[in-house]
Amino acid sequence: MQALQWIELINRIPRDDHDTLLVGTSSGVEIAIQNILRIEDEYLLIRGRLSGTTEMGQIFILPYDRVTYVNFTRPLHDDKLTRIFGELLVAEKKPPTLEEPATEESAAEAAAEPEKPGEPAAAEEAKPQSTNPLRDRLRARLAQVGGAQNPPKVPAR
Questions:
Q1: Domain extents in the chain
Q2: pLDDT tens for each residue of 15-33
Q3: Of 48, 81, 90, 149, which one's alpha carbon is 20 to 30 angstroms from that of 112?
Q4: 31: exposed, middle or buried (Cβ count in 10 Å: 0-12, 13-18, 19+)
């Protein structure tokens, strides 16, 4: 990542949360940040400690080209995560349900499957609805391949 992207990203993080950051460097050193003193074009001036030590208050001049990652050491709740990173977040995609197949291809497969003779439709309705449509499709596919009499058991999670 370039210095400009690091600066932009770090500027998004509220000052109150700087003490929850851990910076990983290209040499494998991790620095727990107490606070960021200056954000310059080529480097960060930070107060912190080396990870795994207790010596607080050390001053580090950290060039952006040596920063590998920045980590939050405490969990961020969704509302705070959205406030900090907003439009940078990937839109969450909800999992497919039984009513809506995952893709057009799987919808076409479901529509093309004929009902098996000898199996009453009422028996299907009597079975409880599963909460895992992927597992149900896998069981149906395994039943087709391995014979409908004794399909292999797929463990529930």
A1: 3-87, 96-157
A2: 988 999 999 999 999 999 9
A3: 149
A4: buried
